[in-house]
Specification:
CATH topology of the largest domain: Rossmann fold
Radius of gyration: 21 Å
Order of helices and strands: HHHHEHEHEHHHEEEHH
Largest sheet: 6 strands, mixed
Helix content: 25-40%
Oligomer: single chain
CATH superfamily of the largest domain: HUPs
Strand content: 5-15%
């Protein structure tokens, strides 16, 4: 990081002027309306250092470092969330990039919301690291959609997998665990993967909507993710399913063809079925299990992966 003297020297060649929200600096970076316009000699790092010097850490790429957020930090996030409540998805994602990139990530299961967000990120900052939790149970159509997204937007979503393959996992547990203990299956093959991948990131983008399920009606635009220890950004929180699909149709955004066969919400193939007319869109997840959430977005979930059977732990150590 440059010293204050160097920063002053860099930015003192011409008078500072104000950029309106959505404007671009010399390096193509988008700035908030209260930020100055910088000299053409300023590097991207110079701009970021100067910009972040007076911003609370909870609103910077270092938000995840140090102690847990204090009440004042949470209030800052709450205030930002209130301010962004009427903002467009583009404005929210631009805000996220300005504050948290390069320590900004996104997880996607290639649902309609995720595909829509990716179409916007491609215009704002395609270098954001995006990953998919490849449980080993995904539909072939889902994995094919990953290739379509890459071809259309140039964003190659990274496939992050659990420690054990499906074959190893089912052997260790004496068969498919999703049939007998789907909560543990989700913890081991989804939540544990996210915990590993998000290490070092300050914020992540999610495609949650408030009208998706009772668990999600209160989600903020911006908040602290207590489960994973970073800032959580929901740019589509206020959107409805109809609004999402209108944008997908208008912009010809790629989507999973399973939606045309009645699958409203798509996860792993053993735990997903089409929904009937009038059913909640997540009614097709874990049918017959009294379960509609994998646990990624429910803080009551157990914080650590379930232990392996003793014989499995012995195999692992060999």
């Amino acid at each position: 990081m440059h010293s204050l003297t160097n920063e002053v020297a860099i930015f003192s060649e011409r008078p500072l002027s104000r950029k309106k929200h959505g404007g671009q600096g010399a390096n193509g970076e988008v700035f908030q309306d209260f930020l100055p316009e910088y000299s053409s000699e300023a590097t991207e790092a110079d701009v970021r250092d100067c910009r972040l010097s007076s911003v609370p850490r909870i609103l910077t790429p270092q938000a995840h470092l140090g102690n847990l957020p204090q009440p004042e930090d949470l209030e800052i996030l709450a205030e930002e969330s209130r301010r962004l409540e009427e903002a467009s998805a583009e404005e929210i994602l631009q805000w996220a990039v300005e504050h948290y990139f390069p320590n900004l990530t996104m997880a996607t299961a290639f649902g309609p919301e995720g595909c829509l967000i990716l179409s916007i990120l491609a215009k704002i900052e395609p270098r954001v690291y995006v990953f998919n939790i490849d449980t080993g149970y995904q539909f072939p159509e889902t994995l094919k959609l990953r290739d379509q997204i890459a071809e259309r937007y140039g964003i190659v979503v990274d496939l992050q997998r659990p420690e054990f393959s499906v074959e190893e996992y089912e052997r260790l547990h004496g068969g498919p665990l999703y049939k007998t203990n789907p909560d543990q299956c989700c913890r081991d093959r989804k939540i544990a993967v996210v915990r590993r991948v998000i290490q070092g990131y300050a914020a992540w983008i999610c495609g949650l909507r408030r009208d998706q399920s009772p668990h999600r009606v209160q989600i903020p635009i911006v908040g602290w993710d207590q489960k994973f220890g970073l800032v959580k950004i929901n740019p589509l929180a206020r959107w409805t399913s109809r609004q999402v699909w209108q944008r997908i149709v208008q912009e010809k955004i790629p989507y999973n063809p399973l939606h045309e066969r009645g699958y409203a919400s798509i996860g792993c193939w053993p735990c997903t079925r089409p929904v009937s007319e009038g059913e909640d869109e997540r009614a097709g997840r874990w049918p017959g299990m009294c379960k509609t959430e994998c646990g990624l977005h429910v803080i009551e979930d157990v914080q650590t992966p379930s232990p392996l059977p003793s014989f499995a732990e012995e195999d692992r150590q060999q």
